[in-house]
Amino acid sequence: MKKYRIGQIVPSSNVTMETEIPAIFRSRETILPEKFTFHSSRMRMKKVTKEELEAMDAMSLKCAQELSDAHVDVMGYACLVAIMSMGRGYHCVSEVNLHQETVANDFPTPIVTSAGALINGLKVLGAKKVAVITPYMRPLTDLVVDYIEHQGFEVVDSIALEIPDNLEVAAQNPMNLLEIYKRLDLTGVDVLVASACVQMPSLEAIDLLEKEVGIPVTSAAVCTTYEMMKKLGIEAKAPIGGQLLSGKY
Q1: Among 224, 203, 199, which Cα is nearest to 13's?
Q2: 197 is catalytic
Q3: For the segment 45-85, what is each residue's pLDDT rounded down to a tens digit?
């Protein structure tokens, strides 16, 4: 039985990344033999503003060093908007920089950013037109939309819940998404991103949303977990809720 160590680079006020991602891996453990442990290093951030996000991102390299000391098998950078607010395509820069820290620490480690994972997940799903729900203020949501569109997708519609406090983001009831999504124009949409944020809970609602809207539904957390599985070289069928949670690998 193979055991994997999952490393997470986490904003200090994020309490969802360390619940949703382990929940998906734990679900996998019930049907497949691999086992997982979870290990975090934190970057200071309380308010979801561009200034705090930029300052936080600068701490990510130190976190990569610390997790590398633990010889984790993969690292996930757990803040989508921090990456996307740094400029188009920044997930590629971040992933290279973080990987180089692990190389310098003599334990080269695959890196996943939630921003890059969402982009890759949408590609795997063959998405062309998407709709997005975020908890961010509208200016940050617009940056996320621009980032996704720069990667080759059309964002047909987006919702910004405009919650600046990161702990308040985590306190949102995921089942509210079953009403929130109804404010979106889903005309022609291929994929619904129920939460473009690894802090805003959505896991409990994803399969229910998919049944209602009749198209694939994903989230930053689901895509991040999927990408981690791929980096580890273990089975993962598709970055949508039902495929990861119901054991349909």
Answers
A1: 199
A2: yes
A3: 888 888 888 888 889 999 999 999 999 999 999 888 889 98
